[in-house]
Amino acid sequence: MNQEFLDLCQLDTLGIRAGHHRTAEGEHSEPLFNTSSYVFESAADAAAKFAGDVEGNVYSRYTNPTVKIFQDRIAALEGAEAAVATSSGMAAILSVCMALLKPGDEVLVSRSVFGTTSNLFGKFLVKFGISVKFVELAKLQDWQAAISPSTQMLFLETPSNPLCDVADLEALSALAKANNCRLVVDNCFCTPALQRPLELGADIVVHSATKYLDGQGRCVGGVAVGNKADMEEVLGFVRTAGPTMSAFNAWVFLKGLETLRLRMDAHCQNAQKLAEWLQGQDAIEQVYYAGLLDHPGHELAKKQQRGFGGVLSFKLKVSDEAQRRAAAWRFIDATRLVSLTANLGDVKTTIVHPATTTHSRLSDEEKVEAGISENLIRIAVGLEDINDLIVDMERGLAAL
Asked: Do 188 and 218 touch, CB atoms closer than 8 A?
């Protein structure tokens, strides 16, 4: 399918058709190329492909036809020039940073990123001479105050994990451009079905394909998308270091992309209903979901997203601070339908206690700064019947 035709297609069509160019076999479904290497027509052909003078596959550590279909499809969905697939979402973030940063560079990172992302920047990248400052996601003035001549990248998630804070992407893009640095956005919670950060001025988007892009919790993978020049640098790192997506995982993700928009709409509907129900319960102190009218990021989310996503969190009303963890654990252990697992983006609803799982490696001070309290519970709302989910939440409340 040529690019001129694809440019006229809508997101649902791109999720099903983009990237696949049929082979001589005439297959209708995308083929799975389970091969580590490729045969050349001649020694001259091998030399030309190794040198990059002729386009073609050399070795599946960095080029594979099935992976290329996935890369081209997600690039089309995000409105990007190019994409590079990786072995995990964290590998995508690492690859972007290793490819585009150098010793002496500074990165501003939202405090509201996933716990492992925070560790990657604050514990590991600093070992390579990269300076890292953490700032409040939704406070533009904090980004403005923190940026300096050595800042080369602004990194954030919006909505954030797990409090669903929302960043003003257009304003941060303007700030980044005024200071000659890149804006990198983790779009995992929204996916291109709900939000396209590149259209709002971002330079690079990263995903954990493990989450909504797959949608059924089957495989681990990641992807970065952006302009061709940046993605060539990222591919160079992946080619050398090897955090490569497998052909099989890429094939699975392609199947997930076919239903992405339909699933995301259904996730949003269920999450909205559950958030509104939780907000009406006396035992709930606060619900964090941008679809609620009293959420501080509600209007901004309406402006830059098609929907509010499938992830919400809430705090139990526990007056004794020493009992907050115990109360949260009782709630979680009393549920029977939802799955106690740290993954999200699945058709199955998942529940987790961030303070002791996804954000457990943060120090106590870092947890306070990120708003991760002991009475906080995160739910990634799946596609079960909403009434069944509410009944399961009632089981949790009954255990308090």
From this structure: no
